[in-house]
Amino acid sequence: MKVSGDWIERPETQRVCRLLTAGRHRALFVGGCVRNALLGAPVTDIDIATDARPERVLELAEAEGLKAVATGADHGTVTVVAGGHPHEITTFRRDVETFGRHAVVAFSDDIREDAARRDFTMNALYALPDGTVVDPLGVGLTDLEARHVRFVGDAETRIREDYLRILRFFRFTAWYGDPDAGFDPAALAAIAETVEGLAELSAERVGAELKKLLAAPDPVNAVAVMARTGALSQVLPGATPLLLGPLVHAEETAGVPPDPVRRLAALGAGEAEGRALRLSKREMRQLSLLQSLMGSRSDPAELGYRHGAETARDALLLQAAARGAPLPEGALEEARTAATQRFPVTARDLMPAYEGPALGDKLAELERRWIASGFRLTREELLAEATHRP
């Protein structure tokens, strides 16, 4: 079996492989690029495994005239840039000691040792520069073809090496698992034994992993099982997956792409949870706003006019999920149209007839009437109304 694609045929990438093989070393693509190529998914990052030591990779790259940086030399990683594309080259490794995210590793000449320290069997697949797939563990291809996400070796051991692998398991299942095949029972049993270890992870790592999970086309089953194992409450206390399914259905029906912040709002995450997950300031503002709008009675036009098309769209989807009903026909288009409108009356137009609080009240009243008219009332009509003081 071979992998193919523009990424592997790129001359610059083949040049990086040749600098290793010409130096009498092995060069094998590994991990996500191989997995995604086999699945027909986009390949973004290129990782290469080799038996060459980091200093040797640096030496070979320099001789080839390529930029090389020891981005993780202690763990055997050198990034070589060719044609503007980064290639992460990592020496075969075996774990000597592991403690959370960090590990003491020893370099190896054995690809099987390198494969044995990886997280999931579908990530322990390699490919030669010509695309020929290498499956050192003998189960990676079978598991990938079956969309079976399972840990390499003993699941509990893999998790205790890095508790983030609990969240990665659910993320990979959401993205690559067979939705009809269920979840690996050995993995779920191991997660039940280790779930409290999630408390040891940094908020940044948890937040980043959750957003990747919630960006999956349909993470509903994964999040539901997360809740049953206790993993969801560990990383997002008080969260409930009940609205996530209706939201994903509403998104699919409306043809709206996934958005992690919108889906966090459906799980019940608010400002406090956003801070705990170290969301960006923009994400925090959006999450807080969506939570406030979920119960709003504003119609699509007002939502679009006051908050913009995207926020209105997200609020309408969340409201539909909460009601358990489809979006009103034309609601998203109404919100998009409203977002382009500009109120034609200014405070200066109402002066000096109105001033102080009365000026603000009258301006707000006219704006409400203008919105209610479907933005049809003209400036002249609005000002004519303003002259009829009560």
UniProtKB/TrEMBL annotation:
Keywords associated with the record: Magnesium, Metal-binding, Nucleotide-binding, Nucleotidyltransferase, RNA-binding, Transferase, tRNA processing
Cofactor dependency: Mg(2+)
Any one GO molecular-function label of the UniProt entry: metal ion binding
DNA-binding as UniProt keyword: no
GO BP annotation list: tRNA processing
Short name of one Pfam family: PolyA_pol_RNAbd
InterPro entries referenced in this protein's UniProt entry, alphabetically: Bact_CCA-adding_enz_type3_sf, NT_sf, PolA_pol_head_dom, PolyA_RNA-bd
Coiled-coil residue spans: none
Residue ranges occupied by any tRNA nucleotidyltransferase/poly(A) polymerase RNA and SrmB- binding domain in the UniProt entry: 184-240
Keyword Nucleotide-binding: yes
Domain spans labelled Poly A polymerase head: 29-150
Superkingdom to which the source organism belongs: Bacteria
Gene3D superfamilies: Beta Polymerase, domain 2, cca-adding enzyme, domain 2
Protein family: Belongs to the tRNA nucleotidyltransferase/poly(A) polymerase family.
Name of the protein described by the UniProt record: CCA tRNA nucleotidyltransferase
Annotated organism of origin: Rhodosalinus halophilus
